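Fig. S4 source data, part A: sequence.
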Amino acid sequence: MSAAAHTHDHAHDHAHDHHEPGFIAKYIFSTDHKTIGIQYAISGLLFLLFGFFLMLLMRWSIAYPGQPIPGFQIINSIPGVSWVFNEMIGRWAPGGVVNGELYNMLGAMHGTIMVFLGIVPLGFAGFVNFVMPLQIGTIDMAFPRLNMWSYWLFFVSGVGMLASFFLGTGSVQTGWTMYSPLASTTSLAVTNIWMHGHTWWLLSMVFNISASLLGSVNVITTIINLRAKGLTWMRMPFFCWAMFIVAFLLLLAFPPLEVAALLQLSDRVFGSSFFLPTGLMEGGQHLDISGGGSPLLYQHLFWFLAHPEVYVLILPAFAILAEVIPANTRRPLWGYKAMVYAGLTLGFLSFLVWAHHMYLTGMGTMMSTYFQITTVLISVPSVILLTCLMISLWGGSIRFTPQMLFASAFLPMFGIGGLTGLPLAFTFIDLALHDTYYVIGHFHYVVAPGTIFGLFAGVYHWYPKATGRIMNDFLGKLHFWPSLVGMNLIFAPMFIQGMGGFHRRWYDGGKYFEQTSSVSNWFTELTSGVFGLFGMNVPNNLLGLNVLITFGAIILMLGQVPFILNFWLSIKGGKKVKNDNPWDCTTLEWATPTPPPHGNFTFDIVAVRGPYEYSVPGVNQDFFPQWESSPGKAAEPSAVPAAPAAAHHH
């Protein structure tokens, strides 16, 4: 008997024994994978919005140093809002002016929130929870209660991060990487070390990592044990393959960072010296520590997580595109097997490149050569994934829905991010560009117009399955175009600034580094001339590009308004779906009712073919779903030999 059939019957046996759960049990402390997926997705989107707000404050400080934040006086006049704003931000910005201390807080928390509380919860936890069990034809995750725990551990970590803004010390100021010894010794004079922003950051990260570990174990177990009858490994959608790989990356890479966080917490709170060397001084005084620790050990532990983490961010976007592109080109996914093997290779190689972030530590020639070679090698599977998706567009009858616009824009944007990363693989280039805006531009092209565009495509694609409504097409396109323009205006000039020597941690944007900021070139002349047409006086030098980037950030902000309206208003007011498969897709999640009920499937699900059978010769429609033995007729369970035995779970 198939996993789906087995578990579905089991669900129905219980349906008669229990009364309907109340609102809190059903929507707050739910063990249903779909509800948990939606909880993760909405939480992730809200954190992305907050992280974006922190970035806007940073960009204002960089473009207009010494000038008050726009609307500072208005915010201060609104009861309630003014208290929250002043406790979080205002008390560190005298007269509304962002100073170096606040800029460091914004930088550290922007990076932390976007990566650990925004993209991973939305891209991995949100989509994998909602979509993957449906795509493999089962009724739930292998461990539903563990799944609920995973979300609530993540939620606690998010609350802890936000609460750190309200502490007397404010939130952390030592970058999102939290390098020792700086992070381990900053503000040690605080009376209660437990009420320090850095202590809360470390505790929150322990909760966050624990949540990811629970989620990854659950995903791996579910995919191995609960696939529907006939759903062999090579009939599984690439979405599930990519999430399977991401789960392994989290399971293997996150424990070193959890260890690093606990050891750094011990250094701060209990006086140990895991990362603190002998002879440290602060304020002209020798620190009273035992010493003997290694700051480099922390960097190794951190980057052993943080390079696989890059692929934790990007693989969910590739997973989503592998579903969106075939559905909107009406063609099979080109090179499905090549993509699977490329994804597996990418996962393996991602553990062999971490120290290319550490060239400045002075590693020997032999070691730096090794990491240069592995870094160049890892670009090969990335290029295979990108190439397969681009060839999938060839000759297709493309529907330019909002999700397809975001998916097709992802391809060149991620390409720019990848290509600009290749020079950084080489020590002699990285020594010059390390910690400049060039690195910021490279990384953000991968994760902003890259990953985040992929995640938006996924929201538009599966929104009808989750809600029974389709998001407004016009508002979707109104979301896409300003986002595309804004992203490029923000990150493209950073390459020019970075090669000019602009450092990522100048809170004044380089105003007091005249030898660097006074340089001009054709791009600065063009920028100054264009702004001049509108009566704006922007200097013809690298400093002037700060204004252009901030202008791009404002466009990007305005572009998110249609999405926010569309997302919330469409829940009740969006166009109702006409059937359970509004996009005419072929994978199993579209065989469920819309939205899927508890237990997901209303018949014994059987997979009789691969996941991307579009425009099959001899079939009278341009899609041939996995669950149909002939067009319009569901396959019988007896038609296909059994896949792995289903685990019996509650």
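Fig. S4 source data, part B ends here. Residues 1-18, 643-650 have pLDDT under 50 and may be disordered.
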